[in-house]
Each structure stands twice: as structure tokens, then as C-alpha cells.
């Protein structure tokens, strides 16, 4: 197994769960995402991007890190460039750290859909800010280690067929879920959460704090 962490420019809360998640991984930084390295105790082996969101302070602090520089006018985001590089280097598991928040909603949506597309190709990928995690769901069975009462939602990117949810406040059995349905929004963990589906693409987003506003 070769685990990689990609530091992105969104929000990061450097808590114990996130530190455990990234421990022992190889690290790539996408442009301004390198700002999260110190709080997580990480040292990137490569810094990629067009560097349009890198401050002079970060530029000086991480001047020793090898860089792969791209033009601002390019066909991929810095995050996708870093993800492709991780797979080129042999990644079998990837954590997108800082994939949520920040000033670019379009980038957040891209990270969620991009991760799901890679999961559909059989790749293991997790998105995390420390306080929030996202796990792509494609055909198969999943088991999660979320704390009791963790609030979670499943957002479908396509129709979901034969969806099962166990270990939740509102379990489901053999559900056909249409694209755009809110049925699987705002559930909470009861015991060990298990999810399975026969076909479709979705993402499970968990807020790692007690559920509220159900």
C-alpha cells in the first residue's frame, strides 16, 4: 500500500483524527495548500501548481521543497494535477486534505465529483478537513468508524439502486434513490454505520460532531 496526502487550499482543522489519517503518508502540496503542512506536521516531497495563491511568506518558508510549476492558463486545477501525480507515483490510497471550504465553491464541488469518478475506477480516496469527511460511494459495501451520533448525508450523483443503510437513526433497505433526492440528507450514526448499493454514484459526507438540526 502506498498512501498519499494532497494538501489543498480549503479549510483544515488539525485534530487528532486528521493527524491519524495522514500519518505515514507521502505528501504532495497543491499551490496554497502547503499552508496546512506545518499544523499537520507534514513535509511535502513536491509542490505543484501555478502558484497564484501562494503568499510570499509561504514561498520563502518552503523554498527548499521541489516544485513543479504550471502556467495559470491550463486545462486542470492544481488539485487535479497533484492527484494525477500521486497516481503516477504509485498511490493506492489518497487523502485530499483541505478539500472543503475556502473561497471557491466550484473547487469544492470538483473535489467531490473528481473523487467519486476515481472511486468508480477502483481507487481508494477520502476527503477531509478534520471536522468533516467525505467518502465516495460506488457499487459495493462500506463500513465506517464514525463516532456515535455523527451527522452524515449521502448525496447522489446519479440514481442509486438497491441502497442499504445500517447502523443509523434512519436505516434504509433496498431503496431506489433518485438523483437530486434529499431523502438521505441529515441522518446520524447509531453503532457501526454500514452502507451498500448495487449501482450508482454518490458521496457520503460526515460532520464529525454530535448531530443537530435533523
TrEMBL record:
Q: Name one GO molecular function term.
A: kinase activity
Under InterPro entries, the record lists: Thi_PPkinase (IPR006282), Thiamin_PyroPKinase_B1-bd (IPR007373), TPK (IPR053149), TPK_B1-bd_sf (IPR036371), TPK_catalytic (IPR007371), TPK_catalytic_sf (IPR036759)
Enzyme Commission number, as recorded: 2.7.6.2
**Coiled-coil portions:** none
Q: Tell me, which GO biological process terms does this entry list?
A: thiamine diphosphate biosynthetic process; thiamine metabolic process
The record's listing under Pfam families reads: TPK_B1_binding, TPK_catalytic
Source superkingdom: Bacteria
Group of enzyme by EC: transferase
Q: Which UniProt keywords apply?
A: ATP-binding, Kinase, Nucleotide-binding, Transferase
* Gene3D superfamilies reported for this sequence: Thiamin pyrophosphokinase, catalytic domain
Q: Where is the Thiamin pyrophosphokinase thiamin-binding domain?
A: 140-203
Q: Does the keyword Transcription apply?
A: no
Q: PANTHER family per the record?
A: THIAMINE PYROPHOSPHOKINASE
Protein name per its UniProtKB record: Thiamine diphosphokinase
Source organism (scientific name): Phyllobacterium pellucidum
Lineage, opening ranks:
Bacteria, Pseudomonadati, Pseudomonadota, Alphaproteobacteria, Hyphomicrobiales
